[in-house]
Design a protein that fits this description.
By secondary structure, this protein is of the alpha+beta class. It is built from 2 helices and 8 strands.
Length: 162
């Protein structure tokens, strides 16, 4: 999705119009591919590592995606970052799929959370651990994301793409 299209969607749907979260699944999991994107400055404010689903394949060269329950795959598309809760892995944020490609995210319990298997720094060419389809980040990175999410008056858009 082009930046202008993303900005139009954000404005039309009343999302936070200053920042959004972008995850580029084309980038190796051992490199930073979760971006906090400043829409006003057209720049990346921060980046971190993020998992892909264990059902999605080994690395960025052979990834595939699914919206089906039980697939353990990452689902591409736009998500609304929802309210925080304390889940199996501690602090987590509910994710609501906004596209046909991720419409079952809530049903699949796809959430934004942290896990200690995700390192805080790049480990490329080594891939990082995988999830059951959740975008999972390092605990320290989730704390930084928490500042954005909890202090936002409007929902934040998360876009997972390849």
């Amino acid at each position: 999705m082009k930046a202008d299209d993303l900005k139009s969607f954000i404005k039309a749907k009343h999302f936070n119009d200053r920042i959004c979260f972008l995850i580029d699944m084309h980038i190796n999991s051992g490199k930073k591919r979760f971006f906090v994107y400043n829409l006003e400055k057209d720049s990346i404010e921060m980046a971190g590592l993020v998992t892909h689903g264990s059902g999605s394949g080994y690395d960025e060269s052979d990834l595939y995606f699914s919206n089906e329950p039980g697939s353990n795959c990452t689902s591409l598309g736009k998500y609304k970052v929802g309210k925080p809760y304390n889940g199996q892995f501690g602090l987590a944020y509910k994710l609501y799929g906004l596209d046909a490609t991720n419409s079952k995210a809530f049903e699949r319990f796809v959430v934004l959370h942290a896990h200690s298997c995700v390192p805080a720094t790049e480990v490329y060419p080594v891939p990082i651990c995988k999830s059951f389809g959740c975008p999972t980040v390092a605990p320290s990175f989730l704390q930084l994301l928490r500042n954005y999410i909890d202090n936002s008056e409007k929902p934040i858009l998360l876009n997972i793409y390849q």
